[in-house]
Predict the structure.
Amino acid sequence: MRVAVLASGTGTNLQALLDEVHGRDGIAIAAVASNRPDAIALQRAADAGVKSAVFRLEEHAGREERDRSMADWLVGHGAELVVLAGYMQLLSAGFLARFPDRVINVHPALLPAFPGIRAVEQAMEYGVKVFGVTVHFVDGGVDTGPVILQRAVELPDARDPEQVRERLRPIEHALLPEAVRLIARGAISFDPSNPRRVVVDR
């Protein structure tokens, strides 16, 4: 299975995918795209010999055109699954239609709680005692797609958002490659009685 990764920043989740699944079990990271030319993720791709490209919104007529160009480029590299790994842009309906049920995202909260940006800060402001990570399918909403995997960690005395993120990163780095492996081997399906429920056949 050829996997494309979209990333806007440091690319630590991309690195986890490169380390854990690239070149294993019939999985290849085939392409990396970013909206930012200074994203460290692009250097990680180059170091791994993976093709990359930048699709800046400012260089296109709008989000739909940018996403159309990006989708064309990903399809040209044979992408069968698109992974959002810290990609800080909303994707258009047209892009998602090119990869139906084949776009996944990792989010630093236990969805449906605390979607969108500042998820850790939202959780801390609410006073939660349990934080976590969700890997989910991407739909037209903001972090509203069906949940694939989740893992929680108890942090009852959390005070610093960055310290919480440090505790969550290893969970992200474990769950995201696991989700890709499960999809690659056909172990993910949807419950016919509830299409929001993802069934994992381990």
The domain at 2-200 is CATH 3.40.50.170 (Rossmann fold). The first strand starts at residue 2 and ends at 6.
